[in-house]
User: Which sequence fits this backbone?
């Protein structure tokens, strides 16, 4: 009989919330022992999620305990909802990759910055000079933090625009924002990605 989420919660050692995300920031305390408990919990949760009825989890996770375990492990480390992680993380051969559209949410919920980050756009829509960058305010220092600037010209010069199946010609405004957020995460706060890569060109919007 498939294990239920309630049974998993009763039989699997839990990881204290304070060990996951004090003041909004993920930490890893307790050494190997805590890591093993966290991994056991991820394995149990992953098995349970993989056994859920159709429609409960994204298709690429349904019936896939390995990918579910990777996603649950990521969720535990972040102190995040496993379903949020599954909806925004691709797992291929055990290698996790965030969707580009998830980066701003990861940044804004990290606790590193005060309030929400915001996009700064310049140039006319549709023009090669159209550009975007993500900016935020450091929560501790009050410093303004600016991510790299991304432009339509950069997309064309780099081959993103003409790449087979590219969404750039169809939703350039969304793609500018996705890539600006991904670049900000990679350069200013890579810890929010938890070592995973980012798929910056595969989002439909």
Assistant:
């Amino acid at each position: 009989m498939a294990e239920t989420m309630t049974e998993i919660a009763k039989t699997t050692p839990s990881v204290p919330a304070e060990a996951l995300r004090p003041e909004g920031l993920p930490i890893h305390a307790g050494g190997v022992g805590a890591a093993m408990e966290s991994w056991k919990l991820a394995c149990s949760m992953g098995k349970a999620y993989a056994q859920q009825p159709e429609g409960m989890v994204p298709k690429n996770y349904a019936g896939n305990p390995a990918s579910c375990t990777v996603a649950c492990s990521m969720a535990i480390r972040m102190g995040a909802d496993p379903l949020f992680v599954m909806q925004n993380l691709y797992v291929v051969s055990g290698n996790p990759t965030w969707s580009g559209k998830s980066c701003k949410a990861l940044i804004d919920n990290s606790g590193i910055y005060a309030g929400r980050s915001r996009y700064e756009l310049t140039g006319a829509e549709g023009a090669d000079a159209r550009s975007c960058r993500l900016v935020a305010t450091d929560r501790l220092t009050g410093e303004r933090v600016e991510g790299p600037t991304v432009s339509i010209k950069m997309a064309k010069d780099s081959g993103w625009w003409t790449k087979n199946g590219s969404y750039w010609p169809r939703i350039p405004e969304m793609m500018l924002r996705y890539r600006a957020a991904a670049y900000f995460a990679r350069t200013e706060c890579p810890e929010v990605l938890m070592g995973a890569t980012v798929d910056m060109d595969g989002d439909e919007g």
In short: Strands lie at 89-92, 95-99, 118-122, 131-137, 144-146, 150-151, 197-199. The mean pLDDT is 86.
